[in-house]
Write a structure and sequence with these properties.
The protein has helices spanning 13-37, 40-45, 52-71, 84-108, 115-122, 124-156, 162-182, 191-215, 219-238, 244-249, 255-270. The protein is mainly alpha-helical. The chain has a domain at 80-274. It is globular, with a radius of gyration of 19 Å.
């Protein structure tokens, strides 16, 4: 069978994970360097301007290399479309979470709603721009999801329980973001923002791992990630007034976002019994 759909050969999951982590951090370091140091060659070539795009695809490139090197095909990613209900859930969750998060700020007056801006963004002439932006967000997020949820999560599922899958994948996902946070390219680089982001990653990783394992496909996770990035980072902030209290409360580095992420994580952790049983080699953790 073809490399995309063939039954993947057995491989030690711990070895797969180790090789993958070395590759993903090695490849990503090229773009971390460009973003942090801003070398002239990166500026002249235009790489610096778009560095976040190949950076977000480094997890995918590393995962593909790992699968081909150790399993000789790409069948383990679960490329199948899956059931529509998982796609619907992946789209609804970010929109609903954003509405609760930012809606609370609107109602409380912490960060007022901007109706004129919302009307302009949702007007028919502007919808194409919205859809293109959303599509680009899904494209970049897919690069991460092929790696984190396409390889890392199912391989962890072969050696440990869902609780540890969520925690370990959260720690790795967080560490991958740290270089950007330290140099101020993602968040303000403060210690408090890094801690808040780590806590939100625990809840987020639980949700992402759950939907990947429940659906048996990487596409709902990619859709969830893309919708989350667009609505939480772009759409809702654009229709919300900027205030000091709102900045502290909202977005990926806000205290309210952390509370919501933890609540979501606990909900899907509670639903872990609904997941299909993962195959584990003898001697697994």
């Amino acid at each position: 069978m073809g490399a995309l759909t063939g039954k993947h050969e057995p491989a030690d999951p711990k070895r797969v994970i180790a090789v993958y982590l070395v590759l993903v951090f090695a490849l990503s370091s090229i773009f971390w360097y460009c973003i942090a140091v801003r070398p002239q060659w990166a500026i002249d070539s235009g790489l610096l301007r778009y560095a976040t795009v190949p950076l977000m695809w480094c997890p995918a490139f590393a995962a593909i290399i790992t699968r081909l090197a150790l399993q000789r095909n790409l069948g383990g990613f679960r490329w199948k479309i899956g059931e529509f209900r998982w796609w619907l859930l992946a789209m609804v969750i970010p929109v609903a979470v954003g509405l609760v998060m930012f809606g609370t700020a609107w109602i409380s007056g912490v960060a007022p709603f901007l109706p004129d801006k919302a009307s302009a963004m949702l007007a028919l002439p502007a919808l194409l721009t919205l859809l293109v932006s959303l599509g680009f967000s899904i494209f970049t997020a897919t690069g991460e999801e092929i790696g984190w949820r396409g390889l890392l999560v199912p391989e962890l599922g072969r050696v440990t329980t869902f609780t540890w899958i969520a925690i370990i994948s959260a720690v790795i996902w967080f560490l991958w973001h740290v270089p950007l946070m330290v140099v101020g390219a993602y968040g303000d680089g403060s210690f408090s923002s890094i801690v808040l982001f780590f806590l939100s990653m625990i809840g987020g990783s639980t949700l992402f791992a759950w939907i990947r394992l429940a659906s048996g496909s990487i596409w709902p996770a990619a859709l969830l990630h893309g919708f989350w990035n667009y609505f939480i980072q772009t759409f809702y902030p654009a229709i919300t007034a900027t205030t000091e209290a709102g900045e502290a409360m909202l977005g990926e580095f806000g205290w309210y976002a952390v509370l919501i992420s933890i609540a979501i994580g606990l909900l899907f952790w509670h639903l872990r019994s609904k997941l299909p049983e993962m195959p584990r080699p003898e001697g697994g953790l």
